[in-house]
Amino acid sequence: MQRKQEIAEVKQKLKELLKADTRKATSAPTAPAGAEPGKDKDPGSTYEAYIRQFLKEAWTLSKYQVGSLNLAAEVSLTFDAHGTLTDYRFLRRSGETRFDESVQRAVLDLRQLPTAPGQTFSLRVTFNLKELLER
Amino acid sequence: MIISRKLGQFLLPLLATGAILAAGCAKDPAGDASMAPPAAPTPAVAAVPETAPVPAPVFQEEKVMEPAATAAPATALQSAETQLAALTRIHFDYDQYVLSTTARDTLAANATILKALPTVKVKIEGHCDERGSDQYNIALGERRAQAALNYLVSLGVNAGQLSTVSFGEEMPLDPGHGEAAWAQNRRAEFKPVK
Amino acid sequence: MILRHFLIFFVLTLCIAAEARSQVEISAPGRQLLPLAVTRILPLAGTARPELVNDFDATLRADLDLAGLFFPIPIAAYPDDAGQIGLTSTQIDFLSWQKLGAKALIKGGYTESGGELVVEARLYDPSGRRLLNGRRYRGKVADIRRMAHAFADQVLLSLTGTEGPFNSRIACVSSRSGRKELYLLDVDGQGLERLTEHGAIILNPDFSPQGKEIIFTSYRYGKPDLFRKEIYTGREIAVSARPGINISARYRPDGGEIALTLSHEGNSEIYLVGTDGSMRRRLTDNWGIDVDPTWSPGGDRLAFVSDRLGNPHLFTLDLASGAVGQLTVAGKYNATPAWSPLGDRIAFTRLEEKKFEIYTIRPDGSDERRLTDGPGSKEHPRWSSDGRFLVFSSNQDGESALYLMRADGSGLRRVTPPGLAASQPAWSGRW
Question: Can you tell me the ipTM of this complex?
Answer without folding.
Answer: 0.87
